[in-house]
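Researcher: Here's the sequence for the chain we discussed earlier.
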Amino acid sequence: MREILEILARDGHATPERIATMTDIPEATVRELVSGWEAAGIIVRYKAVVDWDRFNHTNRSDLPETITAFIDVSLAPARGVGFDDVAERISRFPEVRSVYLVSGSQDLRCTVTGTSLRDISEFVSQKLSTIDRVRSTATHFVLKTYKRDGDAFLEPEPDHRLPVVP
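Model: Thanks. This is the structure I predict for it:
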């Protein structure tokens, strides 16, 4: 059953017919399982993976470019809740794309987006640092994305093989 979820995680457009062919699970069973997972919140949503750098480069859009930063947050833990309450509060901000509890010298790693360095700076100084129990932050700006969520954003290498003609 995990195989069905892995297929959908790689390709949200995979049809039940195609999944059934790939897994040798009856199509009706695939439909039933996927419906159940959607209802239970196991499948949260389907989305496209977009290479925004390539889009901005090829379209010369008048929309402002998106700046992404990873922000490491050090917290003072609270008895009985650990870090969960602060992580939940941080994840409610619209600028925040992800929040992870991590091992190491920091406690949380957040992915934040804005339209400028100033946007992210103001988020850190006016919103994030004012939360009780936030002890320190370290901000790392993304300069270039090579791969995200298993999807590479590299130009494909040219095929140097000689054509074979029957």
